[in-house]
From TrEMBL:
This is Thioredoxin H-type. Gene3D superfamilies: Glutaredoxin. InterPro entries: Thioredoxin-like_sf, Thioredoxin_domain. Signal peptide: none annotated. It comes from Micractinium conductrix. It comes from the Eukaryota. Keywords: Disulfide bond. Residues 1-66 form the Thioredoxin domain. PANTHER family: THIOREDOXIN-LIKE PROTEIN 1 (PTHR46115).
Length: 70
């Protein structure tokens, strides 16, 4: 499961805001963000999507966050 790992990363990268969206509850958010597969992780800066990872690869997720956390 990627959920607990996502929560763990949120404690490691304290300067990053982590949000989890239940796309079944708010389908309009999934549509607006172009999410078509689960899980999808997106990085947003200044109101724009700058990166995305589709899938539950832990190392790739950590690398994605580290890349944009600086």
């Amino acid at each position: 499961m990627i959920g607990p790992y996502f929560e763990e990363l949120s404690t490691q990268f304290e300067n990053v805001i982590f949000l989890k969206v239940d796309v079944d509850e708010v389908e309009q958010v999934a549509a607006a963000c172009g999410i078509s597969a689960m899980p999808t992780f997106q990085v947003w800066k200044d109101g724009a999507k700058v990166d995305e990872l589709v899938g539950a690869a832990k190392e790739q997720l950590k690398n994605l966050i580290a890349k944009h956390a600086a």
